[in-house]
Structures are given as C-alpha cells and as structure tokens.
Design goal:
Structural class: alpha+beta
Radius of gyration: 18 Å
Distance between the termini: 52 Å
Shape: globular
Largest sheet: 6 strands, mixed
Number of helices: 5
Strand order of the largest sheet: 2-1-6-5-4-3
Helix content: 25-40%
Number of strands: 6
Order of helices and strands: HHHEEHHEEEE
Oligomer: single chain
C-alpha cells in the first residue's frame, strides 16, 4: 500500500510539469510573444501591438501608473519610443507560463533593450486570455530595473 501511495504521489508531482511542457496553448502564447519581439526589432510598433486586446478594458501598468485602453497604450509606446534608435533591439526571456484555466494564462519574464548608449531592462507579467479564438494580452505590468 505504501508503494502505491508513493507511486501516485510521484505521478502527481510529475503530471503538472509534463502537462505544462506539452501544453499547445502555452506554445502558441510563446510563439506570439516572440513574434511581438520580432515586430519590435523591425521597428514596427503597430505590429507589436497586435497581440494586445484591442479594447478600452486593456490594462498596462508601468512606472507612470496604469494606462487603460489599447489606443492609449499604443500612443504611449509611440511617444516613449519615437524611432528605431530609441526602440533598440528587444530581448525577451520567459521565466514562467502558467495555465489558470482553458482561456487564461499568465506569463512572467524579463526584457532588455539593447541600444547604442544603454541597456534598460526589467520584468513583466502578462495576463493572456483567449478571445474569439485568439490569444490576447489583456493586462501587462512591466517594471524597469
């Protein structure tokens, strides 16, 4: 009986890691994040913004507080990064992706901008939701180090 209990306990510990590693939705979200990185690195903020939920309910939290709405977030990015030199080369590193339900995931990671004169960076937490069959970022909290 102790052997069976130990076996079941081992399976329970292994199952979440295995499920996470083979989760197709997490893979899709990861792909979208790296497509977003590529859009940024090509200087295309409009394409970068396509993974964000195009809604007034979108929330973006940063050093300047909370921005609400897709259009306001886009304008904030364009004001803060007016040209390719200011944008630099973006590098994301995923730290964790967690499934909260079939339609909600969170993704935490770090970011760094490689620019000629500096290398700002920090961390982020993204809340992804499946809306009309597509994964969208509905909340973003980004901090600088």
């Amino acid at each position: 009986m102790k052997s069976i209990a130990l076996l079941l306990w081992s399976l329970l510990l292994w199952l979440p890691a295995h499920t996470q590693a083979t989760d197709k939705q997490a893979e899709r979200i990861t792909t979208l994040l790296y497509q977003q990185q590529a859009a940024w690195n090509s200087g295309d903020i409009d394409a970068f913004m396509q993974v964000y939920w195009q809604s007034e309910a979108l929330q973006f939290g940063g050093a300047k507080g909370i921005t609400r709405g897709w259009q306001q977030t886009l304008e904030g990015y364009k004001k803060g990064y007016p040209n390719k030199a200011a944008m630099g080369q973006l590098v994301f590193e995923i730290k964790d992706i967690t499934r909260h339900s079939r339609k909600v995931y969170s993704l935490t990671g770090s970011w760094e901008l490689i620019r000629e004169q500096d290398r700002p960076g920090g961390h982020f937490l993204l809340i992804w939701r499946k809306i009309d069959g597509e994964w969208k970022i509905v909340a973003d909290h980004t901090s600088a180090r």
